[in-house]
Amino acid sequence: MYLSRLPFSAAVLLAFGVAAPGLALAASADQLPDIRHTVISGDTLEAVAKRYLKDPQQWRAVGTLNGVKDPLRLPIGSVIVIPAHMVGYQEVTISHVKGVARVRSPLAGGDWQSAASGTILTEGDELQVPAGSFVTLRFADGSSVRINENSELKLSELRKNSRTEEQQSVLDLSRGGLESHVTPVMDQRRKRKFEIKTPMATTSVRGTVFSVSISDSGKAITAVDKGVVEVQGRQAAQQARVQAGQGVAVARSGQVGPTVALLPAPSLQANPPVFEDANFLTLQVGEVPQAQKYGVILALDPELARVVLQQSHSSPTFKFDAIADGTYYMSARAIDGQDIPGTPAVQTIKVKATPVPPLYANPAPGGLIGLADGELLCTEGGPGIVGYRIQVAASQDFSTPLQDSGVVDNCQASASGLGVGSYFWRVASVRRLADGSLDQGPFAQPQAFKTGSNPPTLGADALSPAESNNPNQLQLSWPAEAGQRFNLQLASDDSFTDARTFALDTPQWASDSLPPGDYYVRIQVLDPSGLKSRYSAPRKLPVEPAILTGAGGVLKTGDGKSVLSPR
Known about the structure:
This protein is mainly beta. Among the domains are: 274-351, Immunoglobulins (Immunoglobulin-like); 360-452, Immunoglobulins (Immunoglobulin-like), CATH 2.60.40.10; 460-543, Immunoglobulins (Immunoglobulin-like), CATH 2.60.40.10. It is 5% helix and 41% strand. The protein has a nine-stranded antiparallel beta sheet, with no helix packed on it. A nine-stranded mixed beta sheet has the order 5-4-7-10-11-13-14-17-18, with no helix packed on it. α2 (45-53) crosses α3 (59-66). The protein is rod-shaped.
């Protein structure tokens, strides 16, 4: 009899607990064992070849290798060995991993290990894909399988018939779901077996795009986008032919339900052309009649093999944490009452959320600034920010900006050049990339503001000092309009380095406790709207001392007025 064995190098390394190349996570196909079949009553070489090689015509080769004299009378209890090279074990490659999926290979020790892109898997290997994780497998013929989150899968059969070149792939899905893109066989003389098995049913295809999942209620769900699949329940009599645009649910008992039309693709028109929120990614799916839930997938490629996000629930609004800037491919489906996913709607979306815009500092939302001195101010950006771009427009859509600063160093802009009215402004941060180019982030949401005319500045001659009969006294008044308030500054020099400021509600001010000397006064007008004038030009005013008597009292005139000493 032909003896089963591993390749010598792999067998030695495994015996000493050392992983050979390709065995770190899984065993390669040439390390799989031979098949050993113990003969039972009724076995023939043709039946054994059909069972294990899916090719009864290879009975002669099996018989020759095992020294069988009579192919129809096999000794019960004897062992027929089918060498691994005849089985034609195949390999698949993990082409994409998102998250923390795990793989287990019985031949490589049977322990669960972290899955990684580029890992080679073969027959017998198992995969666990927890919540928030996704795995895509790539087959030798170009077919691919995307395994969704919360899934468990076993590669039950991965073979290629050496005589007919038929590819044979059987995957056991015990939990979760997957989507398959099976490459059609162009040469009709060559066959392609591709099956997805669940505890409830088996889905068989030749070349198609379809999904298989196990619902929370325990149903096996099949939906076909392209091609045709055959769905067979646990009982052979229960089966259905499912064509493109159709789906079917198989009950936990194995009962195959009726084939139904997939729900139509939902609209994705509510989504913006560019997503600019630095905190969240919010996707909108149009409502579909009869839909109970909606599902969304976001991937890095049009084939949806490199999945980034996936979610399904009853709301047509999906909110995710922010993702990196870039181009993504979104697929959305309406899901019916049997958990059958509908026809997909696909859209390319762009995320450009960084660098984040600065915060508005002045004015407050809807606030008023003066045309003479008003400024639009925002906070300075974080590390890497080298400039800002500020725009002002009369409408919130900024179709025709009135001002566009270009890239400026400081986050501020003047209101000069605008007329009295209502406006919007927005600002964006600019950073420098590694190649030296400038990269502008998204604009902040537009903020409204208003402009108004500042109140006129008082002339120096508008100040009217009152004649004082008391020493150390200064009295002032000036013209004003109803509702105006004032800031009066008093200093001993015209630079106002030691200025004292007095807030006044009326256009007058007096003090009778000033030491004798010269003083400088200027006034700012505060309009009821909140706008301010510039300070008036300084006005120099003297404060005279009184003449004292020999007794130390203030010398007064006959009518009782104080006599002031001219300086």
